[in-house]
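Sequence in, structure out.
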Amino acid sequence: MDVVKAALRVVLGVCCLALGAAPSLAAEGSTVAGPIGGTDIRSAFLPTPGLYGAAILGGASAYQLRDGTGQTRPGLDAVGIDSKSAAGVLLYVPNFKLFDGSVGLLGVAGVGEVCGQITSANAERCKSGFGDIYIEGSWSRFFGFTRPSHEKGAAPIREGLAVRAGLGAVLPTGLYDARIQASNGVTVGSNTVIVAPSLAFTYTTPPLLADGTEFSSKIYLNSYGRNSDTDYVSGKNINIDFAVSEHIGRWQVGVAGYYLRQITDDTRGDVAVAPDGRRAEVLSLGGVLNYDIPDLGAAIKFKARTSVFAYNTAMTTAFYLTLAKKLY
């Protein structure tokens, strides 16, 4: 049933482990490119050469599925999907320059549990297992200068503009069950290849309020392959992660969010899905708090967000806790 299949965007956007920011894509290819939780502060920067690792814990809930007019989708009388996930991240920055910029290679893999239902006729079900893998290659260049923080022992501030270009892909390695997907909207993997070029910028001002105000954004263009089990192809979308934050010594605090807009129709059997191609649009806002530990080459970050509006997708809340460290 189309109504039930459409609800898959609830789950895949909320909890696929290679997902980026948006719980809002087309019904059967509902992840977006990027690490779990998406990107926010410092999105255009690559660190100094070396190998870096991170652990990410996430939780999310989808509580309502909206149609193309922003109203509750009829027929889904018990939407309630909850997910818990954990992911590992590796980033390698080799010690060489390309066009005066740095190169980075990123990989993200994780596990998770998804529980819930979308109609009262089907009892809650749970699935747990490995999620889809995300990989990305990127190039970054910083055009500004580095200055000390006002706080002794804090990391230096990179004032000015940085840009970053990349190409990422979500690989359909995660657990996928078409039967449970159809009845409950519960699945861990997407069973779909996603390819996404990206462009990011970060600009940090002089110390006007504290150590400097940072504006960051990363823009992805997500293109989807065909789900071989369902013959479904999700439409292309543009996904914009963004953050405005202030550097205050070892702390960085601000507002973070994402905006997604689907630009082509979902199709099944090469025919647009009625009534509107299931074109999704969503805005989600929240906060981000980061604490640097320069002596250990580490940082801790917490982010939470909630949907402001949603069309052809789910209203969600989510949080993410990240611990990152330079390994060598």
